[in-house]
């Protein structure tokens, strides 16, 4: 069993006066968050009900049931609360698809099989994902050409950095 918690979103500022909140979602499908019971770092559980894009009603989930937040002041107390789900709750991925969380920590090897670092982070600013390697902080485009092998069970990726990355590191 995989008991890791995966960050799925962060509650933002209140939206309106009746308890709605903005939610910064870190999932491909924001609507999917409404299908999970979300947990914060303190172990509190929440459920979302989308009102419209980026704004949701939020309910606290307790053994007695759900209690919807209906007051702006109470919603303000939830600003910056991180929302997690268990890793095991995520659906299985297709071949050649990966969850960012599964890539972090993998050993990075060059084409000769020599260890050159670890995947410290997966960054995506909209133009495509990049693997951040440590040490050094090199950013490798997460494409088949630059990362031809991803072996989650083996704990490694093979990277073939573009010439621009190698030239920068040598300078």
Describe this structure in words.
This protein has 171 residues and is mostly beta strands. The protein folds into 2 domains: 5-89, Beta Barrel (Elongation Factor Tu (Ef-tu), domain 3), CATH 2.40.30; 100-164, PRC-barrel domain (SH3 type barrels, Roll). The chain contains 3 helices and 13 strands; from the N terminus they run ββββββαβαββββββα. It has helices at residues 72-76, 100-103, 163-170, and strands at 5-15, 20-25, 38-39, 45-52, 55-62, 65-68, 82-86, 107-109, 115-124, 129-134, 139-141, 149-151, 156-158. It is elongated and about 60 Å long. Mean pLDDT is 90; it is low at 167-171. Residues 8-88 form the RimM N-terminal domain. InterPro entries: PRC_barrel-like_sf, PRC_RimM, RimM, RimM_N, RimM_N_sf, Transl_B-barrel_sf.
SSE layout and pairings?
Blueprint: E1 5-15, E2 20-25, E3 38-39, E4 45-52, E5 55-62, E6 65-68, H1 72-76, E7 82-86, H2 100-103, E8 107-109, E9 115-124, E10 129-134, E11 139-141, E12 149-151, E13 156-158, H3 163-170
Parallel strand pairs: 8-13
Antiparallel strand pairs: 1-2, 1-7, 2-5, 3-4, 4-5, 5-6, 8-9, 9-10, 10-11, 12-13
């Amino acid at each position: 069993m995989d008991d890791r918690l995966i960050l799925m979103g962060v509650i933002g500022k209140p939206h309106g006066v009746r308890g709605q909140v903005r939610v910064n979602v870190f999932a491909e499908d924001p609507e999917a968050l409404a299908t999970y019971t979300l947990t914060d770092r303190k172990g509190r559980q929440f459920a979302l009900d989308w009102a419209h894009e980026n704004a949701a009603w939020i309910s606290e989930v307790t053994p007695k049931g759900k209690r919807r937040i209906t007051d702006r002041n109470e919603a303000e107390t939830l600003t910056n609360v991180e929302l997690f789900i268990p890793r095991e709750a995520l659906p299985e991925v297709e071949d050649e698809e990966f969850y960012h969380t599964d890539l972090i920590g993998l050993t990075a090897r060059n084409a000769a099989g020599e260890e050159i670092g670890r995947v410290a982070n997966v960054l995506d600013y909209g133009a495509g994902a990049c693997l951040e390697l440590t040490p050094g902080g090199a950013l490798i485009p997460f494409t088949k050409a630059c990362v031809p092998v991803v072996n989650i069970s083996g704990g490694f990726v093979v990277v073939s950095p573009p010439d621009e990355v190698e030239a920068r590191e040598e300078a």
